[in-house]
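Possible race condition, two jobs.
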Amino acid sequence: MPGSAAKVVITERQQNILQQMSRSVTIAFQLRQRAQIVLLAFEGLDNQEIAARVGLGRNQVGLWRRRWQHEFERLTLVEGLEEPVQLKRDIETVLSDDPRSGRPCTFTPEQLTMIFAVACEAVEESGRPVARWTQREIIDEVVKRGIVDSISTSHLSELLEEAQLQPHKSRYWLNTKEPDPEVFQAQAKSVCDCYLAAPGLAAGFDTYTVCIDEMTSIQALERIAPTKPMRPGRKELIEFEYIRHGTQCLIASFDVVTGQSIAPTIGDTRTEEDFLEHCKRTVDLHPDSHWRLVMDQLNTHCSASLVMWVIAMEGLQLTAEEIGVKGKSGILGSQATRKEFLSHEDRRIRFVYVPKHSSWLNQVEIWFSVVVRRVLRRGNFTSVGALRERLLSFIDYFNRTMAKPYRWTYTGQPLAV
C-alpha cells in the first residue's frame, strides 16, 4: 500500500522563482519540469495527477517532492540571510541531479602529468609545422611517445578542462623594452604618482594633468551595401565588403581629472609639426597654468621644436651654448638630453614619459578603446571628411554624457602573476 506523499510548502519568494523557472526557455528542460512538480504539489495535486501533467512516472514525482521537503528549511534560511540571486542558485541546485561518481580514471598520475606536460609544450618542439596544439595532435603525440595506448578526444577535453589548460586559446601581451627592472619601476612609478597627485594639483596648484597620444591610420570605410537592422532572433547584419576612402590621424589629450578629451587634432599626418601644434592647442586652453603631459617616448614627443617651444613659453634665459645644436651639443644634442630637459620637475610644462613599449600606462589608450568600440568598429563613412566629423561629434557627445576619470589602482609595482 503506497505511503502518503511528502508535504510541499513554499514561501512567496520561492514560488516566484519556481514560476519563473517553469516558464523559462533558457534553462534545462529537467529544471523546468521539476519546478512544475513542486508548484503542482503545493497546489495539492497528488503524485499520479502531477505525473500525468509533466510526463513522468509517479515514483519520480515523489522523489522530487521528498527532495524539496528535505531542503525546505535550509532554503528558508538562505532566503532570510542571503541575496535573492543566491536563493535562485540554491533552488536550481536542489532541483538538479546529484553529481555522479563516473567511470574511474584509467590513467596513473604519472601519465596524466606527462599528458599535461605535452599540452604545455611549444608545438614546434615536436616537429609539427603548426602554431598551436589541437586535441587530435596532442593525442597523436602522447600515443607516439608511448605515454598512453589510446585516449578519446572527449576524455582529453575533460582532463584539460579539469586542469584548466586551454591550448586552443591565447592572449596577446606586451613586454617592455626597458632591460633594467629598476629603471622601468622608477619610470612607471613616476607616471602612477602623476595620476595619483593629479586631483590635488588641479584643486590647489592650478595644474592640469593630460595624457597625449596618436591614433594613426583610422580608415574611412564605406560598406558597399546598407546595414540590415536587428530583428527578433536575428543579429544586425553588416556588409563585409567596403570601399576605402583614406585615413586620418587623431591626436588626443585626455584630462586625467575630468575624464574629458580636450583639444582634439584630426588630420592626414602625425609629423613633428603636427604634434607640436597639438601641444600648443592643448596648453593654450589655460596658457598660464601648470601642465603635466603624459606620453610615450616616440621621437616626435621629445623633439627639438618641443624644447624650443617650452623655452619660449616659460621665458627661460638660456645661452646659445646651453641650447646647443641638434645632434651635436647642448640640450638639443640628443633625444636623451631633450627628454631630460622636457621632463625636468622644475618645468611649468613638464613632460612625463611612460617606459618604452609600455603604452598601457597611458590612460588615453583606454579612451582610444572606447572610440574603437563606439564609433569605428561598426562605422560607415563616405569620406575622410565624414570620418573626421563623426569623431569630433563623438568627442563632444562623450564629454557631455560619458566622461569621468578612470580609477587608477596600479602603483608602479610589479603585478603578481
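Job #2 (started ~2 s after job #1):
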Amino acid sequence: MRGWEWRHLWGRCRSDELATLGHFPTAVYTVAFSADGRRVVGISEDGTFQLFEIDSRRVVATLKETNGMEGPRFQRTADG
C-alpha cells in the first residue's frame, strides 16, 4: 500500500510534456522553430535532421546529414 506521500511525489516528478515529436536515433542537441511557429526542425548527435509540423504532430521530412551541413535554421522567403 502506498500513502498520500507517494502519490504527491509521483505527481511532482512527472513531466510537463504535452507531446513527443518524432523519435531520434541519438540525443537531440539543437532545434529551430519557424517564424510562424508551425514547424520545428531538430538535429540529433548522429546528424539526423527531422522536420515536424506542430499542429499535426507528424514528421514532414527526415534527412541524414551530409558533408558540411550546418545546424537547423529557417530562412524567411519573399512569399512568407
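The chain has one helix and four strands.
Logs attached separately.
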